[in-house]
Amino acid sequence: MPPSAPFNPPAADLPNKPFVPEWVPPPVTQQKENFAELKSIDLSLLDSEDPVVVEELIQKVKVAIRDDGFLFLENYGISLEQLHRQFALAQYLYHNISEEEKERLLYSPETGVWSGYKHPYGFKRHRGVPDGIEQFNWYKPDWEDRNRTPTCLQPFMDEIEEFCNYLTKSVNRRLLTLFSRVLELPDDYLWDNVQSHGSPTGEGYFRHALFRPVEKSTQEASKGLRMHGHTDFGLTTQLFSVPISSLQIWGRDEQWYYVPYKPGALVINIGDTLEIVSGGHFKATRHRVFKPPVDQLQSERLSLVLFNSSVGDLPMSPATDSPLIQREGYIEEQGIFKEYRKQMSSGRPVPTNRQWREIQISTATDPTDTISNRVGAHQVVIDGQVMHQREYLGMKVVLPV
Ligand SMILES: O=C(O)CCC(=O)C(=O)O
Ligand SMILES: [Fe+2]
To answer: How many domains does the chain have?
Structure first.
């Protein structure tokens, strides 16, 4: 395989582009917290001429997705400086978007997509309890029609679009090559058959998120949660490691761990679709967003995320051609794959990838929702532990709070 070309973005200093102040990473926490020890994958090794190096890489990926369902990716082709420019653009958005545009571009999650602007008052179109989270999400129609993106970002959409193209068409494609090889399938199996195409983010979406500090009343109502424990519903999620510690993952020892800051690294989440495609060999990453350590409580947290979605019309199903699955069978000890199997054996229809993502977006609840977040409503006690339990299209999703 030829070495992959590094990211080569459009120029930032064109005459039509206003000055964008630099993004300065805030200081990391000095608190002693539980941090996850995650395996880091050097993606450039995939281009190695030495088959032994490549084989070791595949084995490392195999272990990481089995043990943590989560990995750091380094040397994937985007420099720290190029990445900081993208954070600067996100920062610029939240400093310059007007109130009129927040209203005009307001999202409608009840339609099953997050497209547009999310106000900092919960995950519904109408304003609820303040949650301090603002987002802007680009889906296919938002890439195609500049009127659907904030005016202040329009001069920079060439850079943002190329960044997303690189993340999906280069980084995610190489990542899916690694995953295809773990499944012992042809290199482009997941890219050709499962990944959606047709815009910089396919049927998925790119997000600029800003988490602002919250009032005491919000923190009390949500018990410090900023986003519920969840798994992403798609194929893979590409997040960037950020200095404000808030993202947590659920360890095999059933405890939450903060994801440490590794400058420039990409954090990869495995989504529900990929758990099902892999017959349960890959575990969807259980994660949440929690309040940061005390010395970062008053800091703003920017997060850039690209959600890769699978082809919407396909029913969720395992890649039965995989020699790994044929040899070792399914792994259904827990999680969405187990639910999928139950759904199949009961004869009920399994959701398509699109139905699966849209039902979760349209019915999302807030961590501040003290009516839903109670045992007897959306919570259950299992083996003495409070879990969040929802049912979507007949499939039960049980996750740590
Ligand atoms: O901002 C983050 O670090 C994670 C956000 C997240 O998990 C999500 O939006 O699905
Ligand atoms: Fe997530």
So the answer is: 1
